[in-house]
Amino acid sequence: MAKQLTNNQIEEIKSLLLESKKNIEATLENISKDHDSLSQMDLNDEGDFAAASRDYNNDIHIKKQQIEELKLIEHALMKIQKGTFTGLCEMCDSEIGMKRLRVKPYAKYCIDCRSYIDNN
Ligand SMILES: [Zn+2]
Q: Domain boundaries in the chain?
């Protein structure tokens, strides 16, 4: 029988979630600031432009990932708020484990299910 997280553990996860949420929001804000300055920048030669658009594409990629992560964080925070956050895998109901949750507090699945999903 899988053990659900204790209230203390959930509190710990919650502060980790809030912490990463703050970091992501800061990253996203920095990216949009960068883009504002990019569009105001005077890009004189092609080299400048290529470098700037390479950064831009990279930022877009990071931005996408961060937005995905933010969604997962919001999802986890909502579950905590509703009292349905158990620390159990949403697929097989086994323990995700504090070790994994400390690294990825928004993890919905245990490692087995995660790798199953990734490989299928
Ligand atoms: Zn699982």
A: 7-118
Ligand 1 centre from 101 Cα, in Å?
A: 13
Distance 24 CA to ligand 1 centre (A): 26
CB 92 within 8 A of CB 61: no
Buried b (16+ CB within 10 A) or exposed e, 57-89: eebeeebeebeebbebbeebbebbeeeebbbbb
Number of Cβ within a 10 Å radius of residue 109 = 19
Yes or no: domain 7-118 corresponds to CATH 1.20.120.910: yes
pLDDT classification of 56: cutoffs 50, 70, 90? confident
Mean pLDDT over 52-70 rounds to: 92
| 115 C-alpha to ligand 1 centroid (Å) | 10
Q: Mean pLDDT across the stretch 76-100?
A: 96
